[in-house]
């Protein structure tokens, strides 16, 4: 069940008795803006630069039945909430010319986070941000190492801790929930903060799906039921 709890200068979005988003005018949960990107590719390695032209905090919030409207002057973002198969679906709609989107999920200091596709450098993703973009993983994958330095110098192939063949806008939290965002745009999931996770996209995503479960086995079962599971290996490999 989804509930909206009014707090001082803001609102908490609560699902299954757990806070998922906390918004106040001084610490907004959503930002909209515009930017222009420069992408340079070489043999599957990428240099990506993003010039942020605007990042507008949506300080105001209005409750309309099962929807929320976040706004700031002429910018607005609507969130519509539905529950399907014991999962929360949140659909987004914003001004059509917006091409940068930030949202903050509620977090706790000791929470651990896993996922974002195939990440080879770190298991727990907290205290780092993860750009989600398909690329060559790289050689060395540590900008402080000589291996990565020379791979970059000779062939632009050093990579970084987050470079991966398979990024995915999905994570699992030790707060016993999984989250997936329906978007194919460039994204950056920032887990550096103690009290929120900031998810950034080069578009307004279509939808966010979230599910709380009692055990990690139930979490992964539900997540892979939603995303799909690979087929069983053939008998000659078992």
Molecular structure report:
The protein is mostly beta strands and 238 residues long. The chain contains 2 helices and 17 strands. The chain has helices spanning 146-155, 216-227, and strands at 2-7, 10-15, 18-24, 30-42, 45-57, 60-64, 67-72, 75-84, 87-94, 100-106, 113-117, 129-132, 167-173, 177-182, 187-190, 196-201, 207-212. The protein has an 8-stranded antiparallel sheet with strand order 6-7-8-9-17-14-13-11, covered by helices on one side. It has a 6-stranded antiparallel sheet with strand order 5-4-10-16-15-12, with no helix packed on it. The radius of gyration is 19 Å and the shape is globular. The termini are far apart. The mean pLDDT is 96.
Shape: globular
CATH topology: Immunoglobulin-like
Q: For the CA atoms, what is the radius of gyration?
A: 19 Å
Number of domains: 1
Short account of what is shown:
Helix content is 9%, strand content 50%.
Give me some keywords for this one.
single chain, Immunoglobulin-like, 8-stranded antiparallel β-sheet, 6-stranded antiparallel β-sheet, 2 helices, 17 strands
Chart the SSEs and their pairings.
Elements: E1 2-7, E2 10-15, E3 18-24, E4 30-42, E5 45-57, E6 60-64, E7 67-72, E8 75-84, E9 87-94, E10 100-106, E11 113-117, E12 129-132, H1 146-155, E13 167-173, E14 177-182, E15 187-190, E16 196-201, E17 207-212, H2 216-227
């Amino acid at each position: 069940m989804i509930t909206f709890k009014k707090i001082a200068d803001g609102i908490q979005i609560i699902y299954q008795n757990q806070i998922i988003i906390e918004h106040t005018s001084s610490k907004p949960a959503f930002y909209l803006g515009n930017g222009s990107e420069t992408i340079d590719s070489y043999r599957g390695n990428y240099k990506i630069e993003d010039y942020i032209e605007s990042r507008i905090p949506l300080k105001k919030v209005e409750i309309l039945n099962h929807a929320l409207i976040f706004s700031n002057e002429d910018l607005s973002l609507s969130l519509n909430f539905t529950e399907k198969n014991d999962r929360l679906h949140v659909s987004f709609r914003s001004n059509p010319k917006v091409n940068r989107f930030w949202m903050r999920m509620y977090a706790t200091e000791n929470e651990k986070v896993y996922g974002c596709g195939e990440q080879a450098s770190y298991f727990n993703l907290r205290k780092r941000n993860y750009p989600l973009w398909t690329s060559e993983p790289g050689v060395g994958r540590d900008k402080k190492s000589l291996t990565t330095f020379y791979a970059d110098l000779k062939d632009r192939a050093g990579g970084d801790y987050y470079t991966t063949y398979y990024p995915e806008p999905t994570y699992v939290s030790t707060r016993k929930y999984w989250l997936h965002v329906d978007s194919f745009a460039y994204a950056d999931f920032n887990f550096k903060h103690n009290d929120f996770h900031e998810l950034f996209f080069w578009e307004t995503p279509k939808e966010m799906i979230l599910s709380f479960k009692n055990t990690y086995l139930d979490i992964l079962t539900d997540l892979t039921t939603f995303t799909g599971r690979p087929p069983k290996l053939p008998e000659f490999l078992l």
